[in-house]
Write a structure and sequence with these properties.
264 residues, alpha/beta, Rossmann fold, nine-stranded mixed sheet, two-stranded antiparallel ribbon, 13 strands, 27% helix, binds flavin-adenine dinucleotide
């Protein structure tokens, strides 16, 4: 059994949103200086899902894969410290400005190159851009079934069994392997690696592949989406004091104003 977990490196989602700046000219989010990027929240939970399968079946191999800058090696190492076996880091200038289709093309090409993958786990969404489409696109490109929003994932008799989260219920779905599953926070907290595991992860192998290694070039990855504008919306707050000689009069004036504003 071979599981690939896709982990994206994102700006630390634990710091206050107000500390991020937006460079409108460059159309980029600028995280505060000196704050190290981290694995996307749901992706660490996807690694946890893989580790629970491995806990139940020790012959399971878990590959942690990330596409991004050279620093994305750190989020791979974190997955390896959680118990992953090896990593794949996808770095290339041709990968710098990918849209979701391009991201999924690179990840699915790398998964195909690995060759013997039974199950691909992704987060339900990346916590920076929140598009929530990459897992489903990978499934489409691998011609594999996809099950989204998993709160539990298990594998038996060549099938993956997933409890998925609905707005007001849970449902259980099975799919044949190979399959793709996107993992939600309801699965539970990711395990915290111990110092010994962190040291062991430093010795685990991380293969680094570029566009050529996965058989893609800049033309194949040309974005089909254009980012037109990136900005922080301006929110205005107006204060209006309700006049009136008595509380009843003030309340009546407030009700009139709310009606005028069509709020009641
Ligand atoms: C026109 C345009 C320009 C953009 N420019 C930039 C830019 O300059 N810089 C930038 O950082 N982003 C940019 N983005 C966002 C980038 O395209 C998205 O990061 C990418 O499409 C994936 O979407 P998402 O991050 O919301 O992931 P989702 O679709 O929400 O991710 C779902 C899951 O897929 C997996 N996944 C997603 N991305 C990766 C990854 N890189 N490695 C491993 N697993 C992954 C994870 O498991 C994740 O939980 C741009 C988007 C558009 C549309």
């Amino acid at each position: 059994m071979h599981i690939v977990v896709c982990v994206k490196q994102v700006p630390d989602w634990d710091i206050p949103p107000a500390s991020f700046k937006v460079d409108e000219a460059a159309k980029k989010v600028v995280p505060p200086p000196g704050v190290a990027p981290v694995p996307s929240q749901f992706d660490a939970i996807a690694v946890e899902a893989a580790m629970r399968i491995k806990d139940a079946a020790a012959d399971t191999k878990v590959t942690v894969m990330s596409l991004g800058a050279a620093s994305a090696r750190d989020v791979i190492k974190h997955g390896l410290a959680m118990g992953g076996d090896e990593g794949v880091l996808l770095v290339d200038d041709a990968f710098n400005e990918l849209d979701s289709t391009g991201t999924a093309k690179v990840l699915s090409a790398a998964i195909k190159k690995l060759g013997d993958v039974d199950l691909v786990l992704t987060g339900r969404q990346a916590v920076d851009w929140d598009l929530g489409v990459t897992g489903t696109l990978i499934a489409e490109m691998l011609d594999a079934p996809v099950i989204t929003f998993a709160r539990s994932v298990s594998v038996t008799d060549g099938k993956v069994r997933v409890e998925r989260v609905l707005p007001d219920a849970f449902e259980t779905i099975e799919a044949s392997l190979p399959a793709v599953v996107t993992v939600s926070n309801e699965l539970g907290e990711p395990r915290y690696p111990k110092l010994q595991q962190i040291m062991a992860a430093a010795r685990k192998q991380v293969n680094q592949w570029g566009a050529q290694d996965v058989g893609l070039d800049a033309a194949a990855l040309a974005p089909r989406l254009t980012l037109e504008q990136l900005y922080v919306p301006v929110t205005e707050t107006k204060v209006e004091i309700m006049e009136g000689d008595t509380p009843e009069e003030q309340a009546a004036n407030l009700a009139r104003r709310l009606k005028e504003a069509k709020l009641i």
